[in-house]
Design a protein that fits this description.
The chain is mainly β. It folds into 2 domains: about 130 residues, Galactose-binding domain-like (Jelly Rolls, Sandwich); about 325 residues, Tachylectin-2, Chain A (5 Propeller). It contains no helices and 36 strands. Strands 1, 2, 3, 4, 31, 32, 33, 34, 35 and 36 form a 10-stranded mixed beta sheet that branches.
């Protein structure tokens, strides 16, 4: 949105919060989709890891994917950590096959042949990101937030760390940068390129519930006081983590996948701390006001070990990876923890997949439905859609003026039928070109039959 106008440009516009929708018609409805389980990509079975290894972060640096995580193990019988917590990194070139680099930085068990990048208090929840702030100095290209001890504060405070290469880290300063909150969960921070600021999200207990608060900063050192996120009247739930980050195909949209914590339910007798967890989808355009889907984004599923407290915790970050199917488009990889806290097991990370932009769709059955957008200013040369239909399904697009009247040449009857399964399908009309609408304010009317519309954009 720019100066009150909703701009449609090369960023993919999603239906995750319904903000772009004026109205739905016919049998059309918003449908939440769910990630599909794939293979285990990391088994935390090294001596410096264990059954409480967690708080995973995934990111991409050039052609290399990195996964940062806490190496940790808990003695269920002794109710004590079996070794000090450490921060580890694994690397991959495809997001599917991961390896631990032998870094030679930190000694553990008499050797430095391990993938440990940090040890000490910050290793409880070390959360790094690549700083996209164009003013960031090269030696601070990587930044991280992590909890630190503060005398007299049970829940500590938040410290900041920096690195040139993501491997060799140092504290940005000895003093914490944020002190108001409860910092024993996975706190996150990143550069917001749309508004030119850093955002940080952490836990804040509110009315006996685990809630999420936001701070902002221009320099990563001086932060505003935390403000509780506005859920728009959604019912209170325990949100254990937040996993908020700009969406990789549209940085104007913040997506989060907090682990939802249910403390009064249990299924397995061997669970040392009975509770259940899943995760949900949250969406924001400003970092403060969020749409929270009440249905689970990822359910525990049929695996017995996922019905244990603090499992199904998502890694912070999404990666675009190749599809396992031949000649198919790339997809989103989403990573989630299983086997956490169980005796005689190690924590594991399983990869899940989702189509690009595939979080929420406008769905219509064979009987048909439609969606009309709010007024949009077109900034591009061609309209593209991310759609999936059945063999008999179809999608058509009509362009109207702000009052809803079809523009000559862009009526639904002028649109070439769209059918198939494509993440970037051009929209065409018989005798009109969308370039003639460049810079004009219009509405888009999508007509669907046995189809899902996931996203759309105006590309160059």
């Amino acid at each position: 949105m720019r100066n009150g106008d909703w701009v449609l440009d090369a960023y993919w516009e999603l239906f995750v919060d319904g903000a772009v929708i004026d109205r739905l018609g016919g049998k059309a409805e918003l449908r939440l989709h769910h990630p599909v389980p794939q293979e285990v990509v990391l088994e935390c079975d090294r001596p410096w890891e264990g059954n409480t290894s967690g708080y995973f972060t995934v990111l991409q640096d050039g052609k290399t994917f990195r996964m940062y995580y806490r190496g940790s193990d808990y003695g269920v019988k002794t109710k004590k950590q079996t070794h000090p917590e450490v921060t580890c990194v694994a690397e991959s070139h495809d997001g599917i096959h991961w390896e631990r680099p032998s870094l030679g930085l930190v000694e553990f068990g008499g050797t430095k042949r391990n993938n440990i990048v940090w040890t000490g208090r910050e290793s409880q929840n070390f959360a790094p990101f690549i700083d996209e702030n164009p003013a960031a100095p090269a030696h601070q290209r990587y930044k991280a937030v992590a909890s630190v001890d503060v005398p007299g504060k049970e829940w500590g405070a938040l410290g900041a760390l920096v690195s040139r290469d993501g491997i060799r880290w140092q504290r940005l300063r000895e003093e914490p940068v944020i002190t108001e909150g409860h910092f024993d969960s996975l706190n996150t921070a990143f550069w917001d390129p749309v508004n030119g600021r850093y955002l940080e999200f952490h836990r804040l207990w509110h009315e006996e519930y685990r809630d999420i608060a936001m701070c902002e900063s221009k320099d990563f050192v001086r932060w505003t006081k935390p403000r509780l996120l506005d859920w728009g009247g959604a019912p209170r739930e325990h949100l254990y983590t937040n996993a908020i980050r700009p969406y990789i195909r549209n940085p104007r949209i913040l997506l989060g996948f907090p682990m939802r914590f249910v403390p009064d339910r249990a299924r397995l007798p061997e669970d040392p701390y009975p509770a259940l967890s899943d995760n949900v989808l949250i969406v924001s355009r400003d970092g403060l006001h969020f749409k929270r889907w009440l249905e689970a984004f990822q359910r525990p599923g049929p695996q017995r070990e996922r019905w244990v407290n603090r499992n199904n915790m998502p890694a912070w970050g999404l990666l675009v990876t190749r599809s396992a199917l031949p000649n198919c488009p790339d997809e989103i990889s989403f990573y989630s923890v299983e086997g956490y806290y169980l005796p005689n097991q190690t924590a594991r990370v399983r990869r899940f997949t989702l189509r690009l932009d595939g979080f929420v769709s406008v769905n219509a059955p064979r009987a048909g439905g439609e969606v009309l957008t709010r007024p949009l200013v077109l900034r591009g040369n061609k309209l593209q859609v991310n759609v999936a239909t059945s063999a008999v399904g179809v999608v058509k697009v009509e362009v109207t003026d702000p009052q809803g009247n079809p523009i000559r040449g862009f009526a639904a009857d002028d649109c070439v039928e769209i059918y198939g399964d494509e993440v970037e399908q051009d929209v065409r009309w018989n005798n009109a070109d969308v370039r003639s609408l460049q810079g004009k304010t219009v509405r888009l009317r999508f007509l669907l039959s046995d189809a899902d519309l996931y996203a759309f954009r105006c590309a160059q």
